[in-house]
Amino acid sequence: MIDKINKENSFGGETLPFPVEWVRTQPRKVEEILSGLSVEEQVRAILGLDPHLQQSLLVLSEKAVEVTQSLPVEEVYNLIKEVEDSLLVLSMASPDQLQYIFDVEWWQGDKFQPERALSWIALLDQCQDPETLEWFLGEDFDQKVVLLQAFLKVYKNDEMTDSYEGVEGLEHFTPDGVYDIFFKVENSKEIKKLLLLLYEKDQRLFYDLLEGVIWYPVTLTVEKAYQWRVGRTAARGIPEFEEAIGIYSRLDPETLKLKLPSLEELPSSRFRFSPRYPLAHLDEALFFTQCLAMLEDENRLETLRWELVCLANKVIVADGLDLSSMDIRHRALRKTRGYINIGLELGAEGDPEKGAALLDKVWIQSFFQVGYQQLRQVRSAASTFISENGAYIEYFISSADKERLGALAFRFPQVGEIIEDSFNWRDPECIKDIQAINDFINRWKFYSRFAKQGLGLSESMFSSSLGEFDYPDSLDAVNLLTLVTTALAHYVLFARISCDPLPDVAAKNFLETIFLPGIFRDEVKVCNEDLIAAFEQELLKSPMAWTDSDKTHLQDLLGECSKNLEAQFGSLDLTRPIDWKFAQGLLLRLSP
Within 13 A of 206's CA, how many CA atoms are on the CB side? Predict the structure, then answer.
């Protein structure tokens, strides 16, 4: 784990002034070393580390509060979200840092989320009371009212506000005997405590807020609070939807001439450090990573990190997703880096030195837009193919390929990968992915033409003659491999191209013919490549205007047929009866 942290930190932050394992094995020595560092030096050392390690170092720092409050607010938020037990860091966060956290957590789009707000207030209540109240006093008045309106009903005993409607069964509380407060939520302990703290600290504000709860129109107040929130989040690189959706527009060549931002123009932190987490866990194989390794200007690296934070935020907003979800934030950051990588790899023509030069001169959003345009072309090609051939290939496309093809027609095409025996969908992230996708689509374009022109299969045949078989169990289990292998059997046995179901007797004869004689009884049989080559030459006679890529796809398909025959039937003792239900690869009709 320690080595992994050091390796992943190459673009994230500085080298620590002590071995990382000392945090666990010699914490007192780490504490002593940290005490000799300035706040700025400690901030520089902590930035970009694994969040759990960041928290461990803050625990050992004598200047923990000042160091925490000097970190970029995005880095603090990332730490708190990544570390399950991060109450210590939350208790040390500044009002501005708390404000950012709540601006992200309490809203989804333009909708206020009172349940989330209550859970964060409950969490904040576990910290020291002054921090809780200091944040609340600094909050916008309209946001305070929105918060309290979500949790309270407030009345007072006068002729204008004494209706007391809908309070039956609600917990009652009054700090002064004038205002009657009823809690609309079951867990009211933290809200009540906050009200009492406010009553002791600033009674004037307390009464103004209760009047606001009574008189302020809920919808209008929420809108005003949202506008205040928008102003704050925009300053931290979280735009509204109308601006964010622009990342999916075509790249305007004029943007390539725009002057790169300076640190002063970007969201700020105390020492002008940028958040490190966007570049702290990069795949070394990415072209983007290779280009970053050649980037020598540290100021450009600082601004580039900010650009990446802001761009990932735009992706989340433009995609209509939840900014507070860590899973979404991880996926959005990976998607952002992937699109950038594709665009940069194209722009630099695969040359890392040229890529580094481009990063030094061009906004990374430009590379993102170029990468996205590549995926728009992928989606268009997949959608067109499905529209023109979907009903036909439905008869013989495998379920796995059907999912893969459908995933390419999504708004944001996805590719599948296997990680630790688990299949996952992800966003494409390199030119190699694009090439694999295009090859997949081209192969299915060939398969569709080949099934019609090479095998002579029409849609009507699937519901008539081809529907009369016993194995596989259903038409849904039929795939192109089964059809081609059946056609191979017809050619070997009868010198014709046909996909009609084989009688089981003929199928057994085919297996006895297609496999070469083995020397040993129990060895797996292999296919007679001469018979398969002859079949290939016969198929090439079909009027398909064969291209070189068509021929390659056909060779690959016949190779799969050969492997499947060997896997399914190569170990069978053909001198004994065959239980066909346990084998796959041939359309069969059982003898009466």
Answer: 20
Amino acid identity for residue 418 in this structure? I
What is the rounded radius of gyration, in angstroms, for the C-alpha atoms of the chain? Answer: 33
Alpha helices in 394-467 (DSSP H): 399-408, 431-449, 459-463
- Determine the Cα–Cα distance for residues 435 and 433; give it in Å rounded to an integer: 5
Dist. CA 191–CA 195, nearest whole Å: 6
Residues 508 and 412 in one domain: no
Taking the C-alpha atoms of residue 380 and residue 360, their distance in angstroms, rounded to an integer, is 33
- β-pairing, 171-173 with 179-183? antiparallel
pLDDT at residue 164, as a whole number: 78
Last residue of a domain, one of 447, 468, 489: 447
Beta-carbon contacts of 233 under 8 Å, excluding residues fewer than 6 positions away, are 100, 103, 104
Share of the chain above pLDDT 90, in %: 68
**β-sheet bridge partners, residue 153:** 182
Please give the tally of structural domains in the chain. Answer: 4
* Alpha helices, DSSP H, located in 274-351: 287-293, 298-318, 326-347
Single pTM value for the model: 0.89
Asked which of 89-98, 135-144, 157-166, 382-391 is least confident by mean pLDDT, the reply is 157-166
Residues 76, 36 contacting (CB under 8 angstroms): no
Q: Are strands 107-108 and 111-112 parallel, antiparallel or unpaired?
A: antiparallel
Which amino acid appears at position 320 of this protein?
G
Q: What is the DSSP letter of 247?
A: G
How does 521-549 read in b/e, with b if 16+ C-beta sit within 10 Å?
A: eeeebebbeebbeebbebbeeeebebeee
Residue 29 domain boundaries: 1-72
CA 98 to chain CA mean position, Å: 26
Helix/strand/coil for 9: coil
pLDDT tens per residue across span 392-405: 999 999 999 999 99
For 398, counting Cβ atoms within 10 Å of its Cβ (0-12 exposed, 13-18 middle, 19+ buried), the class is: middle
Over residues 417-429, mean pLDDT? 86
As a whole number, the mean pLDDT across the chain is: 90
- 468 has pLDDT over 80: no
Please tell me whether the peptide bond between 275 and the residue prior to it is cis, using omega within 30 degrees of 0. Answer: no
Q: Residue 521 — very low, low, confident or very high, per pLDDT cuts 50/70/90? A: low
pLDDT of residue 128: 62
Residue 7: its pLDDT value, please?
A: 38
CB atoms within 10 A of CB 185: 15
Q: Answer with the one of 414, 447, 480 that is the final residue of a domain.
A: 447
The C-alpha atoms of residue 548 and residue 554 are separated, in whole angstroms, by 10
Interatomic CA distance for residues 212 and 189, integer angstroms: 21
- Same domain for 184 and 246, yes or no, is no
Closest by alpha carbon to 48, among 239, 274, 222, 318?
A: 274
How far from 362 is each of 145, 261, 352, 369, 448, CA to CA, in Å?
44, 10, 15, 12, 43
